[in-house]
Amino acid sequence: MNKITKSSLSFLIISFIIAFILLFLALYVYSNRSETDPGLTVHSLRNGIALRIALIRTLRLLPPLIICIFITAFSIFFTLTPFQSESFSYPVVATPSFVVLLGFMLIVVLSEFVFIPKLYRDREEALYTTRLLRNSPTHAKKLFADNKPKEALETLDFYFKYDKNDEDANKLYNEILETVYPLGKKEEIVTTAEKKTGAPASFYERGKAEYEKGNYYKALYYLERALSLHKDNREIKELYAITRERTQNLLGSLTKDEKDAAWLIGQKEKALELLDRGEYYEAHDIFVTLTKKYPRLYDLQLYLEKTEEKLAKIDFRIDELKGYEWLPSYDNILFKDTQGTLNMVERVIPWNGTYYFYNIHRYRNSSGSIAEETWKYGKWIGDKIRLKNKSGFRRIAEKEINRYFIYPAVNPGYLMYFSDSSRLINQLTVYEYFNLTPELKKSGLNIEGRYTYLSKKLGVFFSIYVLSLLLGGIAWSKRSIYEFPPFFKIIVFAISVPLLSYLFHHLYLDANNIFIYTHRYLTRYFFKNMNVFTYTAIIHTVIAAVATIFYLSQGSEVE
Amino acid sequence: MTHKACWFEHFTIEHSLACCINYRVWYTISMKFIGKTILKIFVYILVLIIPVTLLVTCFTLVTASIPLWNIGIRNILRHSMHFLLPSIFISYLIATPVVVSLVDKMKVRSLLLLHIPPIIAGGILGGLLFIAQTEEMPIFIKKDVLHIGVNTFFRREVFNEIGDRVVYIHPYTKDLNQLYLYNKKDGHLFAINRVNIGRRGQNYLSVDEKNRMVHIVARNNPQVGKVEIPFSSFKTGDGTLSLNIASSYRNQIVKVYRQFRSAVSGLKQRDGLILAGALFLSVLLISIPLSYGFNDRGWTFSGAAGVFLVLAALPYFYGFVLKILYRISPEHAYMGRYSYLVPALVFCIIGFILDILVKMGGRTRRV
Questions:
Q1: With an 8 Å Cβ cutoff, is A334 touching chain B?
Q2: A271 membership: H or E segment, kind and range
C-alpha cells in the first residue's frame, strides 16, 4: 500500500470517526436536555435513555454523514499537501475510497437491520422502568399503610437497584424497619432468596427434616413426593411407613369414626390420582373440600398448593392480577385475534415474563352483527390469554373455549405497542420483520409487507452508494488545487454540504418510494409476478452502475 | 499609461479598425457565451422539470393534507398538469443560479452580461407559456381534477391511526362493512354495523372534498351520530416533505405565496402581471450576483452548494422584507398608483447593490 493510499484511507476513516463522535455528543446533549423526563431523578436511567436516543439519531443520520464525508474528501482532503505528489493519480484515492464506502455501507446495513431496532427496544424497556420507578415509592407507602411491610420492603428493594441514594425512599425503608422490628416480626421479613437458600435440597431430605421436627403431615407430603420419584428406594419406603403410621394415629383423633377416615383416605388417593393424570381442576376441588374439613392436616394444604401451582400454568387467580394493578401499563390496545374477533384491552401489564390484562372488550362478528362481551381480567398463559370475571378455578367446557380464551396471532410483547404502530415497527429487527409481518397484519397492525420493507431499506443503502460516488465525483471534478479557498467559501461549504447531503439523501428515498409505488402498475400491466424487491433492486443497480461509471471516469487533471 | 489615454493619443484609422475588429470579436464571444448559457439553462430546466413537477405536486397534495400512499398515478399526472406552470417557473429559478454558479469565470466579460441569458431564457419561457395559454393548448388544466375517495384515506382490515382516533373497517359483504371507531383520548370504542361507502343508507363513510372532511355517520347509533374527521388529521406520508425542516420551509413558502396573493388581490390584472414580473426580476437580480459570488477561486462544488443556501434563504428573506414593507407602505404611499411595486423595486435595488458588491469584490481581489 503506497503512502497516498494510506493517507486517503486514514483521512476517510478518521473523519468518519470524528464526525460520528461529534454528532453523537451534540445529539446526546440535546437529548439529555429535551427528551428525557425532567421528573426522573435516577441519573443512571436518565442518562441511559438519553444515550440511546442520541445513538439512534446518530445512526439514523449515518447515510447523510457518509455522503458528506465523501464530498468533503473529494473537495478538500484529497487536494491537501499529502496528496500533492508526482506519483499521485486519481485511482490511488478512488479505489481505497470505494472500499471504505463499502465498509461504511456494511455499518449502515447492520445499524438499520439490527442496532437501531435493538436500541429502540432498550429505550422502550428503560422508559417502562422509569414509569415503574416513579410508581414504586408511592406503592411502597400504600403497602405499608395496608400493613404489608414485607411487600413494601420488596418494592423499595427494587427501587434501590436503580437509585440507592433517594432520601425519601431510604427514609421510608427505615421507617418500615423501625415499625416492624420492635413488634418482633423480624423473622417474618425473610426474602424469597433467603427462604430458598435455607431449604433442604430434595423431597426426602425435606421430609426427613419435617419428621424430625414432628411435622408428620408435612413429612408425609414430602415423602410421598419422594416415593413417587424413587419407588424402590428402601430408605424412603421405611421412613414413609413410619410417618404414615404416625399420621394414622393422629388421624384417629381427628375423625369421628373409621368410615370418616376411610373416606378421607379414599378422597385423598383419588385427588392424588387426578393430580398425576393432570386433571388439576378436579383434584383442586377435592383438596379444597378436604382442607376445609381437615385444616390441621398439613399435607393436604401442601397438596392444595401444589395443585394450584400446576393450575397457575393453565389458569390464574384474580388476586394475582389485583396485586399487580399498581404497575405501569400499556393502555388502550386494539388487536384482532386469530378468530377475527376484535379485542380492546384497557390495560396491559408486562411483568416477570408474563402479561396481565385488565378490562377486555371483545367484539365478535356473528352473522353480520356485532356481539360485545366484557371481561375484567386476563392472563397470558402459554400461547393464549385466559379470561376471567370471577375468582376461583373452573374447567372450561370444550364448546366454551373460544369465549374464555383469546388466541392472538403474536405475543403480547408486540401487541402492547399496538396503540402506536410506529413504536412497534421501529423495534423490529430484520429477522422479526420477516417472520412476524403476516401475523402482525392479521392482528390488524398497519404495517408494510416484508418485501416493501426490504425495498425501502435498499433505498437507504443505495442512496449512500449512489450519492457518495456521484457527488464525490462532481466535487472532485470541481476541486481546486492551486490556492486555498476564501473564508466565506469554507463557511458556505460547512453549512451547505451537510444540509445538501441530508436533503439529497431524503430526495433519493422519495425517488425510491416512487419506484416502489410504480411497482403496482408494472405488475398490473407487464410482469405480473415480479417481486417489489427485485423490481427496486434492478432500478437501483442500474442507477448504481451509472454512478460507478461516472466515479471511475474521473481523472487527475484539474479544470 | 492607462488604456484610456492610449486610445485617445493614438487614434488613427488603423486603431479605429482594430477597435472595430476587437469589438466584433468581443461581440461574437459574448453572443456565443449568451447563447451557450441560455442553452445550458434550458438543458437544466429539462433535467429538473420532472422531479420538480413531482415535488411540487406532492408538495401541494401534502399541503392539502391528502395522503399519498394510494392516490393513484392518474391523479398525480392530472394534478401535476395543473401545476405545470409553477413547476416550469421553479425549475427555471433553480436552473439559473446553478448555471451561473458553475459558469466558467474566464468567459464572463461583464457581470451585466451574465444577467442577459437568464432574462432571455425567462422571456422565451414566458413567451412560450403565453402562446400556450392563448392558443388554449392542453398543457394547462384550469380546474383541479383530483379524484379522491375512501380508499385514499383508509386501508381495510387494519387499524387506521388518525390523530387520536383509530378506524377499523371490516368488509363482510361486497357493499357492507363493519366499522369500528375508537377514541384514544376517552377510550371509547364504537362498533357500527352495516356501513356503506359513500352517502347512502343509514350508516355510511364518505369523503366530503368540498369541506375537506371525512364523515362517519351512524344514524342508528346516537352515541356516534355524525363524526367529522378533517383531512389535516391524516398522515400524508413519510417522505422529505414530512420532515420537520421541510414542513417549516413549506409553511414559509405558503406564507410568502399568501402575502403575494393578498398583494395581487386588490390589483387589476395588468397591475398584477407587472407586480409578478417585477418580483420575478428581483429574484433573478438577487440570485444571480449571489451565485456568481459563490463561483469564486476554484471549489466550484462549494459554489453550486451555495446556490442551495440562496434558494433556501430566499423565501425567508422575501417573507421578512414583505412583512416590513407592507407594514410601512399604507402609511407612506410612494410612487402614486404604482405604490404596490415598492417591495419588488426594493428587492431589485438589493440585487443591484449585490451586483456592485460582487463587482467590487472581484476588482479588489488579488490574482
A1: yes
A2: helix A258-277
DSSP-derived pairing of the beta strands A342-351 and B159-162: unpaired
Alpha-carbon distance of A84 to A96, in angstroms, equals: 17
> Is there a contact between A418 and B159 if contact means CB atoms under 8 Å apart?
yes
Amino acid at A446: N
What is the DSSP-derived secondary structure letter of residue A112?
I
Which amino acid belongs to residue B359? K
DSSP B292: H
Bridge partner list, B162: B165
Using a CB–CB cutoff of 8 Å, tell me whether A557 touches chain B. Answer: no
pTM (2 d.p.): 0.82
pLDDT value at residue B362: 59
**Residue whose grid cell is 407592507:** B326
User: Which residues in chain B touch residue A486, judged by CB atoms under 8 angstroms apart?
Assistant: 296-297
d(CA B182, CA A549): 54
CB contact under 8 A, A446 and B194: no
Contacts of A79 (CB under 8 A, 6+ apart): A479, A480, A481
Q: B202: pLDDT confidence band, cut at 50, 70 and 90?
A: confident
C-alpha dist (Å) from residue B298 to A488, B101, B356: 13, 11, 22
Confirm whether the ipTM is greater than 0.85. no
Return the bridge partners of B183, or none: B165, B188
> What is the CA B235 to chain-centroid distance, rounded?
23
Instruction: List, in sequence order, every residue forming a beta bridge with B125; answer none if it has no partner.
Output: none
Cell of A214: 414432628
Considering only CA atoms, which of A359, A510, A141 is closest in space to residue B56? A510
Q: Which residue of A has its CA nearest to B313?
A: A496
Could you tell me whether strands A330-336 and A342-351 are parallel, antiparallel, or unpaired per DSSP bridges? antiparallel
The alpha carbon of residue B361 is apart from the nearest alpha carbon of chain A, in Å, by 12
Q: Describe chain B by its helix, strand, coil percentages, rounded to 5.
A: 65, 15, 25
Taking CA atoms, A247 is separated from A216, A219, A241, B246, in Å, by: 6, 10, 10, 83
Q: Reduce the DSSP state of residue B183 to 3 states and report it.
A: strand
Minimal C-alpha gap between A418 and chain B (Å):
9
Residues A222-238 have a mean pLDDT of: 77
Distance from CA of A138 to the nearest CA of B (A): 26
Asked if residue A485 lies in contact with residue B299, where contact means CB atoms within 8 angstroms, the answer is yes
Strand B225-230 and strand B188-197: pairing?
A: unpaired
Note whether A449 contacts B: Cβ–Cβ < 8 A.
Answer: no
